[in-house]
What we know:
- The chain contains 14 helices and nine strands.
- It is of the alpha/beta class.
- An eight-stranded parallel barrel has the order 1-2-3-4-5-6-7-9, surrounded by nine helices.
Amino acid sequence: MGDGRCCPLRRIFDERKTVPGVSGLSLPISILDLAHIGTGESAADSFRASVEMARNAERWGYERIWYAEHHNMPAIASSATSVLIAHIAANTERIRLGSGGIMLPNHAPLTIAEQFGTLAELHPGRIDLGLGRAPGSDQQTMRALRRDPSSAESFPQDVLELQGYLTGPSRVPGIEATPGKGTNVPLYILGSSLFGAQLAAALGLPYAFASHFAPAALDDAIAIYRREFRPSAQLAEPYVIAAVNVIAADTDEEAQRQFLDTKRKRVGLFVGRGRTFTPEEADMILESPAGRQVLAMVRYTAVGTPAVVGDYLDRFAAQTGADELMVVSSATERAAWMRSLELVAEVTGLAARAAVTAG
């Protein structure tokens, strides 16, 4: 916002920091829900769990929940991202909801403007549109999506075209998004490389870094984004969201057990391409070069009791200088997944601030 109006999230949380008796992180904390389909579950089971979690997250004081576009992945149910957002929004009241993200090269910008314009009209002031340029799939799935592999090259132009549909005037003469025009759905650039940081800075948009699975360029990307940021109509100052995995449990033993199970599941997903390994086989693979790549993906993971996790998040926020943290509950069991997010809300002071606000 070039007139000096800063991001409303920062203003809201500056006010919350003054609530007496509240401790913990003063940053907004949000959730990335991968809409995981657990063993023996259906997609419908995943959706019911996502609704329950969103209702709880609203009560616990989380700022927003994002859902990611993935295709041809049997364990993830968020492929029709805008449809899932609509369902969650209809079953909640206040919490912001959005995409983390929509893989824009898979879609025509006009289509996404119409989808998210519809969401914004149905749920004013609650919808975010995070955008990525990765395919969210493999090459065979790209062909099934009728996606041109070179379409990612036009990502910057597609972002601007989409922005025009939502804010006006349209960059395509004679074409308007209905619904969409005038909704001003806020855009966020997602990334795990320096490209996304540079683009977000050039366009003056908030930047969300996927450090929960691609941590290597985290520090460099944030530094470039802040250094090169140019104010825009949407944003006056840089705004960084950094993602981090969390497994909080009532005991350290339980948290470590969940973390080990998470790493074993990732071996099946990223090394075995869906194959099922015994725990012993998965542990052997984790000790191999391929396994070390899996371990590198979870470099930024807070594991342990609430106090340990809270301390980790404090240090992660200080390291990154993030304006907001987005946590990914990595626990593979439903009850542990939900409990982990509840404990994070408690230890960071979110729940206490939410209770004060509600009172």
